[in-house]
Specification:
The protein has 2 domains: 42-111, Translation initiation factor 3 (IF-3), N-terminal domain (Ubiquitin-like (UB roll), Roll); 118-200, Translation initiation factor 3 (IF-3), C-terminal domain (Translation Initiation Factor IF3). The chain is α/β, with parallel strands linked by helices. The protein has 5 helices and 8 strands. It has helices at 6-33, 64-74, 95-112, 129-144, 163-176, and strands spanning 49-53, 59-63, 77-82, 89-93, 118-123, 148-154, 181-190, 193-200.
Length: 203
């Protein structure tokens, strides 16, 4: 029995491989776009008549059957873009292309979205000046990066009976960061700590 050449085997299975690849790509695409706002299209539209917005922005109220016929003649979809209007507003468009463009816009918006984090800087009431400056520089860097900064003054033992020391330190930090930040919350005692939160000035 003769052997089949490797090249012939590859050619024989190539259509099946390509079909499987297309199915996988479609599944990945659909799993992403299914969260985009769903619009009724074509036979899914329930109204008997619709307001059709044409390419030149002119409008015409038509029976649904007539609007569907126009969409079919164009090789496109009839898309219900404003279902709560009376009658519902529709457009003739390539719905698959529309959803793909919406997906691209959502991805771009997420890419450009800055995720604001809460950073924390911890100080003791009797902190040395150079240590304070180091902490302040860290806080300033976080704020310039667009993040919020929580400043925590940690009391030990009987230090908690002198909250005014923590308040003075919070005021000192506010003055130090005045160029880049403003206090979001006034200093307050939480357990054995006094905390205040700063946000970037441009927020």
């Amino acid at each position: 029995m003769g052997q089949t050449a490797p090249g012939l085997i590859s050619q024989h299975f190539m259509p099946a491989i390509l079909e499987a690849d297309i199915l996988v790509r479609f599944f990945l695409y659909y799993s992403e776009v299914k969260n985009i706002k769903e619009l009724r299209i074509n036979e899914e539209i329930r109204a008997q008549e619709v307001r059709l917005v044409k390419e030149d922005s002119s409008q015409e109220v038509l029976q649904l059957t007539k609007a569907l016929e126009l969409a079919m003649q164009s090789g496109l979809d009839l898309v219900e873009i404003s279902p709560n209007a009376k009658p519902p507003v529709c457009r003739v468009m390539d719905y698959g292309k529309y959803r793909f463009e919406q997906l691209k816009k959502e991805k771009e918006a997420k890419k450009n979205q800055k995720v604001i984090q809460m950073k924390e800087v911890k100080l003791r009431p009797n902190i040395e000046d150079h240590d304070f400056e180091t902490k302040a520089k860290n806080a300033e860097k976080f704020l310039r990066d667009g993040d919020k900064v929580k400043v925590s003054i940690m009391f030990r033992g009987r230090e908690i009976t002198h909250p005014e020391l923590g308040k003075l330190l919070c005021d000192r930090m506010a003055e130090r960061l005045a160029e880049v930040a403003v206090p979001e919350k006034a200093a307050r005692v939480e357990g054995r700590n006094m905390v205040t939160v700063f946000v970037p000035k441009n927020n």
